[in-house]
Amino acid sequence: xxLQPNDGWRWFMGEDQHLMLDLGAEMLFSTPYIKKxxxxxxxxxxxxxxxxxxxxxxxxxxxxxIGAPAQRVQAALNGIAIARFYKPLMPQSWFFEPQADYHQxxxxxxxxxxxxxxxxxxxxxxxxxxxxxxxSLSAEQLLAGTKQLSTFGAIKVMNDRIxxxxxxxxxEEIRKVG
Length: 178
Prior knowledge:
Blueprint: E1 10-13, E2 18-24, E3 27-34, E4 45-47, H1 50-62, H2 69-85, E5 110-115, E6 118-127, E7 131-136, E8 141-144, E9 147-149, E10 154-158, E11 162-164, H3 165-177
Antiparallel strand pairs: 1-2, 1-4, 2-3, 5-6, 5-11, 6-7, 7-10, 8-9
């Protein structure tokens, strides 16, 4: 079920210190993000803004081929929470393999990062010319030592680590035809 944002949606900090979104009609959405990861106060109460709504529909559009509608809504709302409330991150690119082709990702784009054992799927939630903040769509992954990247976890990486899933799919289609 795809939820339609309205002016009654409100962001607030839950009693368990998780960022929450009141969707009205006695529905609450709890993000996995706790207060120490966020830039917001204990008594925060903010409307779901016009910008949030724009991001919501952009992320839903980009997530079109991923999972069920409820999973896409969950990913889109968590992406907005990161974009709007997450503390600034320092790049942690050393966990991922550098790529020969430099890719400048677009907001909401699905990308991959190469961890030595596999490719992780992520969604771009913030971009700059040199680095990108991404949200993991993959299952929890041990990156190195004790560093875990959980599903919906945020990480910032330099753009030279990013693999465009769109470009990879296009190359695969060309190989099939050719």
